[in-house]
């Protein structure tokens, strides 16, 4: 029996953690990696950089079996296992990562890290550096004085983490949505440090449509009076705007098939007809509102906006000086398995397929696979099980 716990995510957006009853849980520990300082791609210095990470499996003697997992927009490094046997749900890709699974931790050493400006600052298991962090030069939260960071900066911090293990080349990098963008960035900026990549529900060149949508995601925060230009630490935070932002993300990351099957036109309250009062809602409205509010309780609005900017400014290979997606794509040499959802409303299928063709034109070995299901973009988090064998075989080649 499978139990699904609905939580907002994305790549963008909302995630459903899938726990399998009867399976032995992999118990994992959250650790913290620290850098005294790092310089961003934009040339700004950040002191006392800290990111959380988890590892699964064992690094072999020649350090050739490491796989990095990068997370989605509102995700964390908790990709698999549980922190405690009593936890209600495991990490979001637990059905793919673990002993004997597609990413077999009997064979591979898996590293999953939190990004810079991770959204979930209120989660005690998340460690990240961003606007909510204390600026050591002032003793106060950075707020909007924190440097603009990019997907390339996320990967720059991950590279330092990987280097700390003495790993010269990763067996693979894999991630969904924003994790897929990080996957492309790894292959383009460090082409000699990655053997193979598995970008899931992500396009190497997302284009202006996603830039515009990301702006829509962040808009409710900036019109909340409590946002106050990002200066709200120690004051009332913009929870109303953040709730609405997460509601928008959640809907965008899903699909009308999910809406039809899960809610239909049911009323939120059987006794309150939406026709009879403006405050009477449909069930889908109430569910999105409740989900957004629950997610906002652990999230930070400025971190949300910094994540929006990081995704908008994505150029693969930016960390190596690439100025355009086409330029960055030409740097990729790693064998590639692209998994995408035809009904994806965030990274549309045509953009993913265009990236595959561009890589093939450059002589890269590329395989693709379509993820079926009713969840749109979220099929890349929820519905990957049918591709488990394909992933396992790709990793073994």
Quick tags:
397 residues; alpha/beta; Rossmann fold; two-stranded antiparallel sheet; globular
Describe the structure.
This protein is of the alpha/beta class. The protein has an eight-stranded mixed β-sheet, with helices on both faces. It has a two-stranded antiparallel sheet with strand order 1-2. The longest helix is centred in the middle third of the chain and has 15 residues, at 208-222. The model is unreliable at 1-22 (pLDDT under 50). It has one domain (2-396): Alpha/Beta hydrolase fold, catalytic domain (Rossmann fold, 3-Layer(aba) Sandwich), CATH 3.40.50. The chain has helices spanning 151-164, 178-189, 208-222, 239-252, 256-262, 283-296, 301-312, 325-329, 349-361, 379-382, 388-396, and strands at 2-7, 15-20, 31-39, 45-56, 66-70, 97-98, 103-104, 109-113, 134-135, 140-141, 172-176, 196-200, 335-340, 366-370. Helix 1 crosses helix 2 and helix 3 runs antiparallel to helix 7. It contains eleven helices and 14 strands.
